[in-house]
Amino acid sequence: MRGLAILTALVVLAGCPPADPEPAPVEETSAPATAAPTPEPTPPAPLVRTLRRVVVDAGHGGEDLGAIGVSGVQEKDITLAIARALARELAGRGIEVVQTRPEDAAVALARRAEITNASGAGLFISIHANSAETDRAHGIETYSMDVAADEAAMRLAERENREAEVVGRQANERDLDATLHELRQGVIAEESARFARALHGSLVDSLQGFYGADRISDRFHRTAPFWVLVDSEVPAVLVEVGYLSNAPEERRLRTGGYHHRAALALADAVATWVDEREPAE
After folding, report:
1. What 8-state DSSP symbol labels residue 186?
2. pTM
3. Which domains are seen in the chain, by residue range?
């Protein structure tokens, strides 16, 4: 019996098919790599302007001295001192400031406009000090862009615009006429005039209140074709803070107290203007 069992087991084993061998590993072949598509260039974000960003421009600078006072003081130094004081006052009111000339350096008129237009600012204020052939002229004048209000305004604009020739830009009368026409038809000129009157009123009232109306003459808001205003894409104003050719006024213009009071009055007017049109969130 035992022999029969062994024989039967051998027969069964003999009839079983052999086990399948382990399959050989198959090498995976990757598909040929394809170059990633070149992404489309991202268009620049549109420039968003805000009145809560203001460009403060100190007139002249560097080798451009501006007007020279009776004591030898240079306009570029007076304008820089007042511009810095104005920047501090505006910052204290929560208004961002972009300065075209934060130090004593030459900045071309075209570059000042470029800074303004690229900054996203909603307002432009240029600080200057005046001069005249007569030493009797004194007081405050504020300008916005348009044809000259009178011959004196035209002479002043011509004197200020000479700096454009220094940096290689010649005033083209046809271009200027075309620009003036566009400005007169648009809201920028109108807003510039309103903004100039607001700044001028605040500045004159403040300085007359402190120094007296007999010492601070109101020479009113005027218009003239200043190049620094022509190229601006936002409401733009040029403030003449006094006459360096008048000895008493020049003495005041050299003092820190005058700088502070002028900056304070201008900053108050700017803050009121901005809050009425773009209230803080």
Report:
1. S
2. 0.77
3. 50-277 (3.40.630.40)
